[in-house]
Amino acid sequence: METTHRLLVDDSRTLTAVADDSVELVVTSPPYPMIEMWDDLFAELDPAISSALESGNGQAAFEAMHAQLDRVWDELERVLVDGGIACINVGDATRTLDDSFRVYPNHARVTDAFEKRGFDPLPDILWRKPANSAAKFMGSGMIPPNAYVTLEHEYVLIFRNGGDRRTFEPGADRRYEAAYFWEERNRWFTDVWTEVRGELQGLENVPDDVRERSGAYPLEIPYRLLCMYSTYGDTVLDPFWGTGTTSLAAMCAGRNSIGYELEDGFLDVFADRISDVDTLSRSVGRTRLERHREFVERRRADGEEPSYEASHYDVPVMTKMESDIRFREVEAVERTDAGYAVEHVPLEEVPESRSDSA
C-alpha cells in the first residue's frame, strides 16, 4: 500500500491545490488568537490587529485574529467530504491589555464559526498541557479574591461536515483493518485525556524565527485522531502544518496527508523528523499490540476470556469488529516534487524477544 504526503508552502486561507470534497479528515492546531507568540503572524495578515493591540482593544484584536482563521474554515467546508470530520486543537488565552486581565475563549469562538458554516459539533476532548511555572495561580497570591486559575488544558474540538455520517460498502477491508482494540476505544473516546501531555519539540538546529512560530502538539494526539476518525485510504489535511506532526502521524497510521505551511523552513525540520519513520511506525504498531496483550492477561487474571480471535495476529480480541485489525508499517520513503511517497507493508507478528521496545 502506498500513501502520498503533499506539502505546500502557501496560504491556507485559499486551499487552491485541494479539490472540492477530496479530504476525509482535518487534524490541525492553528495559531491561537491573543497568544503573544503569534501576534506578529496575525499582524502580517491584517495590520489592524497591531493597532488594536497597541490601543489596548483586546476584543477587537481577538475578533480580527479569528476573522483570519474564519477564511480557513470556509475552505474546510469546501474540501471536506460530506460526513468528514474536522478536529481542531486549540487553547484559550489569558492576557493583560490596558491594565485589564481577562481570558479570551478561543474554543467558544471556533465552535461558533464552525456552526455558522453548517458543521455539527460533536463531543470535544480536553487534554492537559501543564504550564512551565510551578505556580498554580496568577494574581494576588494567597489573599482572596483577586487570583486567577491557571489554564493547563487545551481542547480538541470535533465537528462533522453536514448532518450525515460517512457510509461504506459492506465489509470494507480498509475500514475493518483500521479497527482499534476494545480497550483503546474505551480510553480514546473519553472526553478527558489525562495521560497525554505536552512535549518539547526537537528544534535546536532551526532558525530563531522558525522556532518561535512552532506550537506543535504531541504525536499521540493526531495519531489517535487519525485512528478514531479515518480509515486506510483516507486523506487528512493540516492547514497549519508547522513541523509536520500530523503528516508524521499519517505515515505511522497508513493514511494520506496534505499540509499547508507559510514557513518553508519547517520542511527541513520535517525531513529530519522522518529520517527514522520506518522504525517509529513499527514501534507504534508493536506497542499497541503489546499493550493489548497486557490487557488480555489482566482480563484472564480476572477470570474473563475474550470471545474472538484476531485474523492477522496471535491474540484474542473482545469483539468481532476487532477481528480483522491489521497495522501498517513504513517500508520505504521517497521524496517527490509534491512531498513524499511512502510504501507501507502489513505489520507482521514477531517473537517478543525480537520486537522493538516501547
Task: Write a structural description.
- This protein has 358 residues and is α/β, with parallel strands linked by helices.
- It has eleven helices and 16 strands.
- The chain has a ten-stranded mixed β-sheet with strand order 10-6-9-3-2-11-12-1-16-15, sandwiched between helices.
- Strand 4 (93-97) and strand 5 form a beta hairpin.
- Helix 2 (48-54) runs antiparallel to helix 3 (58-79), helix 8 crosses helix 9 and helix 9 crosses helix 11 (277-301).
- Mean pLDDT is 90; it is low at 198-215 and 351-358.
- Keywords: DNA-binding, Methyltransferase, Restriction system, S-adenosyl-L-methionine, Transferase.
Q: How does the SSE layout of this entry go?
A:
Elements: E1 2-9, E2 23-28, H1 39-45, H2 48-54, H3 58-79, E3 80-90, E4 93-97, E5 100-104, H4 106-116, E6 119-128, E7 137-138, E8 148-149, E9 153-161, H5 173-176, H6 182-188, E10 192-193, H7 208-211, H8 220-229, E11 235-238, H9 245-253, E12 256-261, H10 265-273, H11 277-301, E13 308-309, E14 316-317, E15 328-335, E16 339-346
Parallel strand pairs: 1-12, 2-3, 2-11, 6-10, 11-12
Antiparallel strand pairs: 1-16, 3-9, 4-5, 6-9, 7-8, 13-14, 15-16
Helix pairs in contact: 2-3, 8-9, 9-11
